[in-house]
Design brief:
Blueprint lengths: L12 E4 L13 H9 L11 H4 L5 E12 L2 E9 L10 E2 L2 E3 L7 H13 L6 E6 L3 E2 L4 E10 L12 E8 H4 L6 E7 L2 E7 L2 E5 L2 E5 L3 H15 L1
Parallel strand pairs: 2-8
Antiparallel strand pairs: 1-10, 2-3, 2-5, 3-4, 3-9, 6-8, 7-8, 10-11, 12-13
C-alpha cells in the first residue's frame, strides 16, 4: 500500500464529535475503569480503512495505554517519538513496540516496551485489560493494553526512541468534542483519520501536542468502549 507523505496538522477538519454523547464521569475514575473492564457489554470499534485491513501478515505489536492516577484526576501518559525512527518518527504515541519471541503475552510485550522506552516500572502498573487489535498502515497489528499507573513512579526517556514524555487529562481525550476527523486527498484517493490536538503551556511557552493516526484511533476506540 502506497503511503503518501503529508503534514497532518495542516489538513482540513471535516468534522468533530461535538454532537456525540459524553462518557459518564463515574467511568473516568479508577473504580469506574476497573468496573468497565470487568463487564462484557457489546460495543463496536471504529471501522478501519479497507486498505489497512487488507494488509497480509501484519507484524504483532503491543502498546501500553498508561492511565496515571494523579491527585487532580486521571491522565494518559504519552510520548513524542524520536525523529530518527523508521516507523512513526516524530509522532505522538503510547509506549510500545513489536512483540518479541520472549514476550509470553501482549501484556508482557507492552510492559517490557514501556520499561525500555520510558523506564516505567511494571510493578507500578495495574493491568485492566485490552482493547481490540488496531491495524496500522505501516503493517502492524497493535494490541492496546490498558493499565492504571500507581504513584510514586518515575519516568525517563530512552533518547534513542523517545524525544519527550507528557501527560494529557483523560477527560480531555474522552471528550468527543475534541475528536477531529481530518481528510487528506491525493491522486490515489483520500484518507480520513482522527486527531486530538492538545494545547499545553510549559515554562511559559505555549505549544500543541498533535495526537493523530493510530494513537488517536485507539483513543477513539477507548471512548467507544467506555461509552457502552
Amino acid at each position: 500500500m502506497i503511503r503518501p507523505v503529508f503534514e497532518p496538522e495542516g489538513l482540513p477538519i471535516e468534522s468533530t464529535g461535538i454532537d456525540l454523547p459524553h462518557v459518564a464521569a463515574g467511568r473516568l475514575t479508577p473504580d469506574g475503569l476497573r468496573a468497565r473492564f470487568e463487564q462484557r457489554l457489546p460495543w463496536d470499534p471504529e471501522p478501519q480503512d479497507a486498505r489497512v485491513t487488507e494488509i497480509r501478515d501484519p507484524r504483532e505489536a503491543a502498546v501500553l495505554v498508561p492511565i496515571v492516577m494523579r491527585p487532580g484526576g486521571l491522565t494518559v501518559l504519552l510520548t513524542q517519538r524520536a525523529d530518527n525512527l523508521s516507523n512513526h518518527a516524530g509522532q505522538v504515541s503510547f509506549p510500545g513496540g513489536s512483540r518479541e519471541p520472549a514476550d509470553a503475552t501482549p501484556t508482557a510485550a507492552a510492559l517490557r516496551e514501556a520499561h525500555e522506552e520510558v523506564n516505567l516500572d511494571p510493578a507500578r502498573v495495574e493491568v485492566l485489560g485490552a482493547l481490540p487489535d488496531y491495524l496500522t498502515g505501516t503493517g502492524f497489528k497493535v494490541i492496546p493494553v490498558v493499565g492504571l499507573v500507581h504513584e510514586p513512579f518515575t519516568v525517563m526517556a530512552d533518547s534513542l526512541e523517545v524525544a519527550s514524555i507528557f501527560e494529557v487529562p483523560l477527560d480531555f481525550l474522552m471528550n468527543p468534542a475534541h475528536h477531529q476527523v481530518r481528510v487528506f486527498r491525493w491522486e490515489g484517493g483520500e484518507r480520513r483519520f482522527f486527531a486530538m490536538p492538545y494545547p499545553q503551556t510549559h515554562a511559559g511557552v505555549s505549544g500543541m501536542h498533535f495526537i493523530w493516526g493510530a494513537t488517536a484511533g485507539m483513543l477513539r476506540n477507548f471512548y467507544r468502549f467506555l461509552l457502552a
